[in-house]
């Protein structure tokens, strides 16, 4: 055993005997602390760290927070939690306590910030500001990660001390910068001479600034400019007025405006709103009214009362002189017609003239004196008398009217109705139309025309015209009927266009107006004149028609008479044709001849008279002399007359003319009959008038009696035994009418019969004397009906034969007379048919007589053949110098002349004693 | 060494390692070895005391130092269970580890050979062999007995195989 080992043994023993140190576990410690707490040995709050290994007292925590803040200046609570290792909840609570204890500190958004921190920040900011001359607060806030409100409040408290600058609209500026911008604003504001929206100004300034600062330039807020501007305004560095905060009107502009208006108004005594608007006065009317209370606002301009005086004088003058005036010529050229109308309504002289009906406002600006209108009217009336034939106008107008009605019927209808109310009333609708027309062309002033309708409403309309307007509206309901009536009334009256043209011709001054103006003045004037003209025209028409009716009666009477005679002849001759029915060729020849001679003359006579009648009816003057007996027309003339007749009458007449050209007598007869029936159809006129009708009937009765008298006279004139027969017939008129088949002239006697005829359409229109709206009346133009030759034919022929000296012409007459004598039928035959006609007489005459006739006939034929051989014109054979031919002619003529007495004797010898009377 | 818990490991590394490779029959070399064994035991004991983890008392029972006796104890549920500890230094020491005996617990648990020799984990032997001759008695206690006590005593106490001496006294007094 060595020493060392023993020593080690002892050491080991000692080590094992040594008292071991006592260690407590964490758990034990926590329990112990809790125990202490429970036992109130520890009587204060104990906080533990996040790790749970440490206990900390609140005081210690506060201390640690303070030291941390002092160290950093600005600490977020979350950072504190980490660094101190205490729960955030306790840190927050203790931080609040710390901050509330220390005024230097503030707790913002989970951060404790000390005042010193702000101070240093402010210093930093100031340095930067001095460098950049401007910093946006937002930028700073983003940089410091605090709210811009906070930073601006912080900055505000340090402005002027730590920060040498100015805070404006979220922007920090150095005083130098502010001064510079201020100078810019002042310069701009002073430079402006016209009103301007300030924001526009600011934007231009901003652009300028950005240009100067280059890319680094920060956008300057408009409010900054605005505050600078307001400051300048307050300091009276710039002059002017600010409206609604943005509309800047420089004083220099306002004064210039005022001076312009003043000078213009005083020089011209008017000013148009347009020019004011050009000057930038937005509501010129109000502006002027407030400045010049004595002035008068119009639609497009503002006038001084002196203008009215001037116009008044001019109008008074015009009215006195019975002339007219266009107020536009007196008023400044800018004045439009609406203004003119308004001014006119303000003129005392116009008002008085209108009240006393001495003047008329037309087309809004024209003032026509009563005298002038009267003058024009009389001249027009005269003109109309000479130029417009009453009847033709009626015809033309009749056709034109529907077209005119569609466009102008409106006015004429209203006018004719309103005309009686007052002259002014009549004027108004036309005026409205005028203004509408104005709108249409807009006269290069769209604004005024746009506001026109408004102004029309605003305008104080004279009460009279207001009432009239209402009336106009009312009347528009019953417009159609009115216009229809007016159409009838004005049938044949001069048209508006015609009046306008005439007025232009009469008053050449109107020509000077340009076309549109002319329309506006002349249309209403024409409208004004037209009813008057129509009235006078109707008056004259009435007079004329009254005259014409007499003449028409006469014409008709004549026609009747002549027709009677001719028709009798015609029928007479027609009878004779029956004798030749067996000989077809001769029959045709005879037919044609009869048509060419008698038929043609009847047709001519009828057509001519119808034409005359027609003309008379329409008021066309017809010379009396033309109404003479013999009328012969060429076929062309016939057709033209036939066509000139109107309606169905024309058709029938043309048919008649054609039948004359034809070969059939029957056709001609029927055509004639229908024409006669159809003839004298008067214009259909609808307006019934009982009194007039009464008058008609009386007139008809009178006509009938006249007709009767004429027929009687006619009979008497015959100087023949027929009178006996007539006497008998007079007794039983009624019976005849009923029998209706007699050889008599049939004529109605009583009114009842006339009515019947009316309905049947047999008509002879009796145009009433009034000239308008005559009721349709008819009277039959009777065809005399004979079933045999008339004694007058006999007499005619005998007298003709006895008078006849021309040997050639004698033969047909003698033959005719012989036929009459033998067959009791008159024959009218052409030369060609003569031989057949003569040969037919062979059986009826004794031989000597027949021989004489044959000789005469052959001699005549020989003579005529010689004549036709020698010359083309057999009627001038006497003057032929051809020796042998003339000799032969002379001998033949002598022969014929020698035979003439015998021939005459043949017929005349026994005629007086042998008149055959038809039974 | 991952089989042992961290405290054991840290403790083990703090125990000074031995250098001399000698068994009880090697004379002076064994004395040298014994000195090293004492130094290691002193270090380990003082270390345990510093950590308030003192858990055994041993002393050499013969002058050669080949037999050691003493006590070891374990605190479970605030009760200190104390057992006798004895072991011999084998002849092949240090190649062979000493067999630690807890004669009181003989027959009370499976983790024990006949005569109260504790069964060590499978990891002990290779570790010991690997660290021969650097491990000594202190290492064997630290690596072998301490884990065995920590693992087995609570089981034994809960199963009622061993009873606290106070309880034994109480029960005996109750019974008497």
From TrEMBL, chain A:
Question: Where is the chain membrane-spanning?
Answer: none
Give one GO term, molecular function aspect.
UFM1 ligase activity
Query: Domain E3 UFM1-protein ligase 1-like N-terminal spans what residues?
Result: 4-288
Q: Identify the keywords attached in UniProt to this record, alphabetized.
A: Coiled coil, Transferase, Ubl conjugation pathway
Which residue ranges does the record assign to the E3 UFM1-protein ligase-like C-terminal domain?
796-906
User: Where would I find the E3 UFM1-protein ligase 1-like domain in this sequence?
Assistant: 556-681
Record keywords: Coiled coil included? Answer: yes
Task: State the residue spans of region: Disordered.
Answer: 391-492, 714-742
Q: Name one GO cellular component term.
A: endoplasmic reticulum membrane
Q: Which domain of life is it from?
A: Eukaryota
InterPro entries in the record: Ufl1, Ufl1-like_C, Ufl1_dom, Ufl1_N
- GO BP annotation list: protein K69-linked ufmylation; regulation of proteasomal ubiquitin-dependent protein catabolic process; response to endoplasmic reticulum stress
Which Pfam families does the annotation name? Answer: E3_UFM1_ligase, UFL1, UFL1_C, WHD_UFL1_5th
Basic and acidic residues composition-biased segments? 395-408, 471-490
Recorded coiled-coil stretches = 542-576
Sequence similarity: Belongs to the UFL1 family.
Q: PANTHER family of this UniProt entry? A: E3 UFM1-PROTEIN LIGASE 1
Q: What is this protein called?
A: E3 UFM1-protein ligase 1 homolog
Please tell me the species this chain comes from. Chenopodium quinoa (Quinoa)
Its lineage reads:
Eukaryota, Viridiplantae, Streptophyta, Embryophyta, Tracheophyta
From TrEMBL, chain B:
Cite the Pfam families for this sequence.
UFC1
> Could you confirm whether the keyword Phosphoprotein appears in this record?
no
Tell me the GO molecular function terms: UFM1 conjugating enzyme activity
Protein name stated in the entry: Ubiquitin-fold modifier-conjugating enzyme 1
Q: Record's GO cellular component, any one?
A: cytoplasm
UniProt superkingdom = Eukaryota
Any one GO biological process? protein K69-linked ufmylation
Q: Spell out the catalytic residues.
A: 119
Family as reported in the entry's similarity comment:
Belongs to the ubiquitin-conjugating enzyme family. UFC1 subfamily.
PANTHER family, per this entry?
UBIQUITIN-FOLD MODIFIER-CONJUGATING ENZYME 1
Gene3D superfamilies in alphabetical order: Ubiquitin Conjugating Enzyme (3.10.110.10)
Reported function: E2-like enzyme which forms an intermediate with UFM1 via a thioester linkage.
The alphabetized UniProt keywords are: Ubl conjugation pathway
State the organism named in the record.
Chenopodium quinoa (Quinoa)
